[in-house]
Write a structure and sequence with these properties.
This protein is an alpha/beta fold. It has 7 helices and 10 strands. The protein has one domain: P-loop containing nucleotide triphosphate hydrolases (Rossmann fold, 3-Layer(aba) Sandwich), CATH 3.40.50.300.
């Protein structure tokens, strides 16, 4: 069925956000559909994180609307359907007193009733999330002793533990080495293609856009939607987006 006949997961219309007279977002309209793999790119300070906070109901727009699964955001209650990995999630204190398993279990809190004990379903969901992120062998390791790439996968597993339909990752590669990034992209692709999880990847770095991206949203106060990301990743377009003379060295590639 063509995307236009489906109810979008996110339906954003004419979104504006003004703070102290400064326009952070200007007339943003976009739709994100089930099973899509989308990148949102733009310069630091361009409004990407502000947009994400509005999608998650953490900020209210000056005007405009956000609907989630067809519901106005104020009426939406099924937040467990949305997995979120915030900026710098993989950066934790080396002395943080929790194992990788403890961290992933936190992702089940929203699924349990208050004061209820861990169920078999909880245990299975946590186990499945760790397997998908290839970290089951790390479950007893203290999270502070893990590498940046390993912590990154732990934090994504925490988001997956709630069994979401959409996974939003805000600048997830901060402090993560190139080898770990390659593995990370392969895992995201697998989640999208095999588990049909919608992926929304936010970054300021045009050099890490994966080949699997289906659509590209560029954000710098205003939004532009591109249905052919490879065409959009040109020096001219990126120069206009970032306000500088851009030189695109290469697109990110990984092996499946």
């Amino acid at each position: 069925m063509p995307l236009r006949f489906k109810i979008p997961i996110f339906d954003v219309k004419n979104l504006n956000f003004i703070v102290n007279g400064q326009k952070i977002l200007s007339n943003i309209s976009l739709e994100i559909f089930h099973s899509e793999y989308i990148a949102i790119i733009g310069p630091n300070g361009g409004g990407k994180t502000t947009l994400v906070r509005m999608l998650l109901g953490l900020e209210k727009p000056t005007n405009g609307s956000v609907k989630i699964f067809g519901k106005k955001i104020k009426n939406f209650k099924d937040w467990n359907k949305i997995g979120f990995v915030p900026q710098r999630a993989a950066q934790v204190d080396q002395n943080f007193p929790a194992t990788a398993l403890d961290i992933v279990k936190m992702g089940r809190i929203s699924k349990r009733k208050l004061f209820s004990s861990e169920s078999e379903e909880d245990i299975q969901a946590v186990n499945d999330a760790m397997i998908k992120m290839d970290i089951l062998d790390l479950k007893e390791k203290m999270v502070g002793t893990l590498s940046g790439g390993q912590r990154q996968r732990v934090m994504i597993a925490r988001a997956l533990a709630s069994q979401p339909e959409i996974l939003i990752l805000d600048e997830p590669n901060t402090g993560v080495d190139t080898v770990s990034q390659n593995r990370f992209y392969a895992l995201l692709s697998k989640l999208n293609k095999e588990d049909k999880i919608t992926i929304v990847f936010i970054t300021h770095d045009i050099g890490v856009i994966a080949d699997d991206i289906g659509r590209l949203f560029t954000i710098n106060q205003k939004a532009t939607i591109c249905n052919n990301p490879k065409e959009a990743l040109s020096c001219e377009d990126m120069s206009a987006l970032y306000g500088i003379s851009a030189h695109l060295v290469h697109n990110h590639k990984h092996e499946h």
